[in-house]
């Protein structure tokens, strides 16, 4: 039996995991930190984030404004104390990253430059060209090399958590290059495994974004919160789903349907803003959920075009000069050229909505602590309560940093104060059980395969839990998922090799994904209102219903059955629910909301 | 990570680079005139007769002659030595130290010879 | 849809002593990348095929393979650009773990060796000032996605695995050129060695294959100039 | 994390001695490196010339005769071509190693220098 002993296990080498590991190492150099990741850290999907990270920066901006944008964007389902904490600490975290070397884009005088972003009233998005996530991830990864306390275990796939009663005491991992199982005992475990976008068919996510961490915690009785809220990004490339960043629209790109008409003005986001003069929160800079929904209506009305069999509308950047595009959006130019053979300076980019982000996740408190003692969660896999029903672009990169740090510090504190588990017979038994479980999955597949099952799952989710949902579709999806779970029980891994067994990894990931998919579907079915990214078409459910649903949904795992749903109150500190308004309706409404927020912010 | 030993390559690389410039800027002209046109009889300037060259070297005797020799013979020799030394490594031939001694040693010897010949005239 | 012939180098450490070639036929259209083709093979014909990938948008650096002998990102190389049988093999100059997966540990060790992080002792709360011109000095070299294609293209790394190699030296230059950094002196000691900048003979193929066009060859050779300066300064120190 | 019964068995392939024949890029590299071989021949001629000059007029004449042999002219012509190929590659590398001015400008400047030397020498040799 291979057993490792460490103080803190961080599962995930993305932005959140790396930030947490560094924070833990800085909090206490005497602690031993193991950073596990199923891919090399710099392959994590944080690398793909293009647009930027938000923090109040300009003199004209205020914490209260960022707070109100975030809460409004969340359709009032954000935990307002968490948002307050977040907006207060975001700036300092971005500066920290600057001190670690992140090549932020600059103004002529050498100060930080900020750009516009959808749903944000003021320019407050820091960016590093259009490779912000890439630069953040590499800066963090490279900085992590400074700390001898951080031991990296690259290409380790975590299969399960080790739990004694109500506390976590380590993880079980598969070492991908040898096929060996290893038990890693620790006092604190931080899950930072990223989102679950790959549960859907069209998505902007990398192949590794399969919801592993969510399922790990879920299976051990931790609630998954607000799982019904899945963000569609309005501008993915047809087919692949590769993201064309919102920053394009921040720079002035416009959306047109097949007739060349800027259709967003028909969906409450108008009036039409003049070409080259984007307005915050109007037209193309409206929030993502609204934009994706508008696409759906355009498609229903037959005003979308077709590209390689996919319905598309177009992103128009042609009025921006080639030089400007090369300077501000070089990666977008490269992507458009390679994947749809379009030069954005002279032609329209075909785009369509694609699943982008899971707002929900492992429920934690403001300290990133879950209901299992010693278990923390952070980043996209977690629901600390920042995004509510809809995330604003550029809030999540900042979230990784702000809460990554919190998680690391809290985990360090816990590791210093708690007693580790020393029960070795118990460990041996665990190890054996895991080994047996793993060996049972090998065999020959007659009429099913991991690939086929996965395809069926992603299509079912796209159908049932898409941009618009209704009871029939959701119920059908739920039944399909149940059938797929049954098929999964009989599914076998045909490749029995140990070294880099891709099929085994995909099999395990699919198991995680299916559990997460069921949680999404169950929560979506239970929320019989429309809010943020969750839109129901059933009659009586198309509007927000604060009386019954100003509540977080909590899904609890049931082995072999549908998750059990319960509800949790939302923490509201200073901004009482109001209507979410964009376009011209915004101005008047916002002033009132902001006054309230300012009043609230004065308390601290 | 321990600190590696400082390489002496900067010396050879500097000579190689200087030689490379001479090879690219000065030698094409020389090769054209001395190696092709003159032997073919297409040009026969008086300064390429025995008396002419001797006179030339005498007027330029000393530092100028040495400098010209260094530029058209010595530095290009080191340039060649550098490339051959690394080329042998590329072809997986020979031991690094031996090939280094041989290549740069020969370049040094021939360079000294050239300079001595110029001074001896 | 067109049919494409692929010849893939397979190696299963538990069965084989040396790699073998296996032929497959896949269908694809003008948008099908090599990665798409490999994944469709894996899903429909042979689940035992092992490869690395994630972002499928040329930014995570996982999917490097040799295509007809040239290092490429699988997700940014398209079948439409090839005729005849397409040869696919794991990245050259690295040890093969299985099929298209190589051992990247030496690459990571070399990256870590050059202290790839900002070294300075500023700890006030304000960001540094850095003008766009100062940023431009190193920006290009900060775009490395750690894909390792340049190592597979560099014969000097193939001949001498201790050579720090193009990406690591480029990263060292990236920090050395950063106006906010004071760590050049300690990085130079790595670059000054025979396995540092001096391991390069300017073959230049690293820059040819770099999918992000950051010209690592230029970085490595600029590092030689720096190392030469450092050499001279050192002479006067004693 | 390797144990004795670890299933790993990484396969290390060795570079063969003819690696440089496999890709066009490597062949061009080797060609560039090989430009020094005809260069060495020409340098040998120069040394021989110097020796002859120092020795006697007779010797100088026999040097001149040596230079007139077909194979010598051929090798020196090759050396000239090699020097031009070397120049092409060398000039292209310079701006990348020392980015002092726009690359095109630097490359053009270097060619102008070579050309100037050629023209000067031709003029001195009486070509008009
Ligand atoms: C295309 C795209 C663009 C985006 N742009 C922006 C933007 O401009 N601004 C913004 O704020 N947000 C953006 N986002 C969202 C943001 O990038 C992500 O939410 C965030 O990067 C997630 O980071 P993370 O650290 O939580 O997870 P990830 O970066 O996904 O990392 C997850 C880590 O967990 C590891 N892991 C997972 N499962 C296991 C397991 N079972 N065992 C071991 N390790 C495991 C993985 O190996 C990986 O290292 C974007 C997202 C996408 C997809
Ligand atoms: S320098 Fe280029 S080729 Fe080399 S690892 Fe970086 S991105 Fe890849
Ligand atoms: S290919 Fe290798 S030899 Fe130098 S120029 Fe690039 S590092
Ligand atoms: S899959 Fe990420 S670079 Fe190709």
Q: Please, could you describe this protein's structure?
A:
The complex is a heterotetramer of chains A (604), B (121), C (238) and D (128). Chain A has 604 residues and is an alpha/beta fold. Chain A has three domains: 2-53 and 130-231 and 357-427, FAD/NAD(P)-binding domain; 236-354, Flavocytochrome C3, Chain A, domain 1; 446-569, Up-down Bundle (Methane Monooxygenase Hydroxylase, Chain G, domain 1). Chain A is built from 16 helices and 22 strands. In chain A, the strands form five sheets. In chain A, strands 7-3-2-11-19 form a five-stranded parallel beta sheet, covered by helices on one side. In chain A, strands 20-18-12-21-22 form a five-stranded mixed beta sheet. In chain A, strands 13, 14, 15, 16 and 17 form a five-stranded antiparallel beta sheet that branches. In chain A, helix 1 (15-27) packs parallel to helix 4 and helix 12 packs parallel to helix 14. The longest helix of chain A has 25 residues, at 502-526. Residues 596-604 of chain A have low confidence and may be disordered. By secondary structure, chain B is mainly alpha-helical. Chain B has a domain at 13-23 and 47-119: Fumarate reductase/succinate dehydrogenase, transmembrane subunit (3 helical TM bundles of succinate and fumarate reductases, Up-down Bundle), CATH 1.20.1300.10. In chain B, 75% of the residues lie in helices and 0% in strands. Chain B has five helices and no strands. The longest helix of chain B has 28 residues, at 63-90. Chain C folds into two domains: 2-102, Roll (Ubiquitin-like (UB roll)); 105-235, Orthogonal Bundle (Fumarate Reductase Iron-sulfur Protein, Chain B, domain 2). Helices cover 35% and strands 15% of the residues of chain C. Chain C has nine helices and seven strands. In chain C, helix 2 (105-113) packs parallel to helix 6 and helix 6 (166-176) packs across helix 9 (216-237). The longest helix of chain C is centred in the last third of the chain and has 22 residues, at 216-237. Chain C is elongated. Chain D is an all-alpha fold. Chain D has a single domain (19-124), classed as Fumarate reductase/succinate dehydrogenase, transmembrane subunit (3 helical TM bundles of succinate and fumarate reductases). In chain D, helix 2 (36-55) packs antiparallel against helix 3 (57-68), helix 2 (36-55) packs across helix 4 and helix 4 runs antiparallel to helix 5 (103-124). The longest helix of chain D has 28 residues, at 70-97. Chain D starts with 23 loop residues before the first helix and ends with a helix. The chains are: A alpha/beta (604), B mainly alpha (121), C alpha+beta (238), D mainly alpha (128). At the A-C interface, helix 3, helix 4 and helix 9 of A face helix 1, helix 2 and helix 3 of C. The structure holds flavin-adenine dinucleotide (FAD), iron/sulfur cluster, FE3-S4 cluster and FE2/S2 (inorganic) cluster. Iron/sulfur cluster (SF4) binds at residues 144-150, 166-167, 170, 210-212, 214, 216 of chain C. Flavin-adenine dinucleotide (FAD) is lined by residues 11-17, 36-39, 41, 44-46, 48-53, 132-133, 156-158, 192-195, 204-205, 208-209, 212-213, 243, 356-357, 379-381, 393-397, 400 of chain A.
């Amino acid at each position: 039996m291979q057993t490792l002993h460490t103080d803190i296990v961080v599962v995930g080498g993305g932005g959140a995991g790396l930030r947490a590991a560094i924070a833990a190492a800085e909090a206490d150099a005497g602690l031993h930190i193991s950073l596990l990741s199923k891919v090399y850290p710099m392959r994590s999907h944080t690398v793909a984030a293009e647009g930027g990270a938000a923090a109040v920066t300009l003199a004209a901006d205020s914490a209260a404004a960022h707070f109100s944008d975030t809460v409004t964007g969340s359709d009032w389902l954000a935990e307002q104390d968490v948002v307050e904490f977040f907006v207060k600490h975001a700036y300092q975290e971005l500066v920290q990253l600057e001190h670690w070397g992140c090549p932020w884009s600059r103004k002529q005088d050498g100060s930080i430059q900020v750009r516009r972003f959808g749903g944000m009233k003021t320019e407050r998005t820091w960016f590093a060209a259009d490779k912000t996530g890439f630069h953040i991830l590499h800066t963090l990864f490279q900085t992590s090399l400074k700390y001898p306390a951080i031991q990296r275990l690259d290409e380790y796939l975590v299969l399960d958590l080790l739990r004694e009663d109500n506390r976590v005491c380590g993880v079980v991992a598969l070492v991908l290059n040898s096929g060996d199982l290893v038990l890693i005992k620790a006092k604190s475990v931080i899950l930072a495994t990223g989102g679950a976008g790959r549960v859907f068919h069209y998505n902007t996510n990398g192949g590794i974004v399969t919801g592993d961490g969510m399922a790990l915690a879920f299976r051990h009785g931790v609630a998954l919160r607000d799982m019904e809220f899945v963000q569609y990004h309005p501008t993915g490339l047809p087919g692949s789903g590769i993201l064309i960043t919102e920053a394009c629209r921040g720079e002035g790109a416009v959306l047109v349907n097949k007739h060349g008409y800027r259709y967003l003005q028909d969906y409450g986001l108008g009036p039409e803003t003049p070409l080259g003069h984007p307005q915050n929160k109007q037209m193309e800079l409206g929030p993502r959920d609204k934009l994706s929904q508008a696409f759906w209506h355009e498609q229903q009305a037959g005003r979308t075009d077709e590209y390689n069999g996919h319905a598309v509308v177009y992103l128009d950047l042609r009025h921006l000069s080639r030089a400007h595009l090369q300077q501000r959006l070089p990666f977008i130019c490269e992507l458009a050229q390679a994947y749809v053979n379009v030069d954005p300076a002279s032609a329209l980019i075909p785009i369509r909505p694609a699943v982008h982000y899971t707002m929900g996740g492992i429920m934690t408190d403001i300290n990133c602590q879950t209901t299992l003692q010693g278990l923390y969660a952070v980043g996209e896999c977690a629901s600390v309560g920042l995004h509510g029903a809809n995330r604003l672009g550029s809030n999540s990169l900042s979230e990784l940093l702000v809460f990554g740090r919190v998680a690391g510090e809290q985990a360090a504190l816990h590791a210093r104060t708690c007693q580790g588990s020393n029960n070795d017979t118990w460990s041996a038994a665990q190890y054996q059980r895991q080994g047996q479980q793993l060996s049972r999955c090998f065999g020959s597949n007659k009429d099913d395969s991991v690939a086929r099952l996965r395809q069926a799952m992603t299509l079912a989710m796209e159908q049932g839990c898409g941009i618009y949902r209704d009871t029939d579709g959701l119920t059908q999806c739920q039944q399909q998922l149940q059938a797929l779970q049954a098929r999964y029980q009989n599914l076998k891994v045909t490749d029995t090799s140990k070294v880099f067994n891709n099929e085994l990894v995909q099999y395990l990931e699919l198991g995680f994904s299916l559990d997460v998919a069921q949680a999404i579907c169950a929560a979506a079915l239970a929320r019989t209102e429309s809010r943020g990214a969750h839109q129901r078409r059933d009659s009586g459910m198309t509007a927000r219903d604060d009386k019954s649903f100003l509540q977080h949904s909590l899904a609890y795992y049931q082995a072999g059955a549908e998750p059990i749903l319960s509800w949790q109150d939302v923490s509201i500190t200073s901004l009482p629910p109001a209507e979410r308004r964009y376009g011209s309706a915004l101005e008047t409404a916002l002033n009132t909301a902001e006054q309230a927020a300012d009043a609230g912010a004065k308390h601290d | 990570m321990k600190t590696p030993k400082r390489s002496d390559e900067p010396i050879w690389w500097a000579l190689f680079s200087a030689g490379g410039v001479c090879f690219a800027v000065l030698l094409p002209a020389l090769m054209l005139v001395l190696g092709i046109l003159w032997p073919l009889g297409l040009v026969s300037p008086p300064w390429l007769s025995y008396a002419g060259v001797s006179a030339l070297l005498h007027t330029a005797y000393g530092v100028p002659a040495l400098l010209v020799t260094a530029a058209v013979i010595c530095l290009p020799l080191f340039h060649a030595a550098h490339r051959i030394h690394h080329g042998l490594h590329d072809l997986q031939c020979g031991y690094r130290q031996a090939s280094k001694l041989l290549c740069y040693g020969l370049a040094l010897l021939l360079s000294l010879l050239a300079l001595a010949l110029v001074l001896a005239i | 849809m067109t049919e494409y012939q692929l010849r893939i180098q397979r190696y299963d450490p538990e069965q084989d002593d040396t790699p073998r070639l296996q032929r497959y036929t896949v269908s694809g259209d003008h948008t099908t990348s090599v990665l798409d083709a490999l994944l469709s093979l894996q899903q429909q014909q042979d689940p035992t095929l092992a490869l690395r990938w994630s972002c499928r948008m040329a930014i995570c650096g996982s999917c490097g393979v040799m295509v007809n002998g040239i290092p490429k990102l699988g997700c940014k190389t398209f079948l439409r650009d090839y005729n005849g049988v397409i040869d696919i093999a794991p990245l050259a100059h690295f040890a093969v773990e299985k099929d298209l997966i190589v051992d990247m540990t030496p690459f990571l060790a070399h990256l870590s060796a050059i202290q790839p992080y900002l070294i300075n002792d500023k700890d006030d709360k304000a960001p540094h000032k850095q003008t766009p011109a100062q940023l431009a000095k190193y920006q290009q070299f900060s775009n490395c996605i750690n894909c390792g294609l340049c190592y597979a293209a560099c014969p000097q790394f193939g001949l001498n695995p201790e050579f720090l190699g193009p990406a690591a030296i480029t990263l060292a230059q990236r920090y050395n050129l950063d106006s906010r950094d004071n760590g050049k002196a300690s990085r130079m000691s790595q670059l000054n060695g025979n396995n540092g900048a001096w391991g390069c003979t300017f073959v230049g193929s690293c820059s040819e294959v770099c999918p992000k066009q950051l010209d690592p060859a230029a970085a490595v050779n600029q590092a030689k100039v720096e190392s030469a300066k450092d050499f001279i300064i050192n002479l006067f120190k004693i | 994390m390797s144990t004795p019964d670890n299933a790993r068995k990484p396969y290390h392939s060795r570079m063969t001695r003819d690696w440089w024949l496999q890709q066009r890029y490597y062949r061009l590299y080797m060609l560039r490196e090989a430009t020094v071989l005809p260069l060495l021949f020409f340098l040998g001629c120069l040394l021989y010339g110097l020796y002859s000059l120092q020795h006697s007029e007779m010797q100088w004449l026999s040097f001149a005769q040596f230079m007139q042999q077909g194979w010598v002219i051929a090798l020196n012509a090759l050396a000239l071509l090699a020097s031009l190929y070397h120049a092409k590659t060398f000039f292209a590398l310079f701006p990348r190693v020392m980015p002092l001015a726009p690359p095109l400008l630097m490359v053009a400047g270097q060619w102008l220098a070579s050309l100037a030397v050629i023209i000067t020498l031709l003029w001195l040799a009486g070509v008009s």
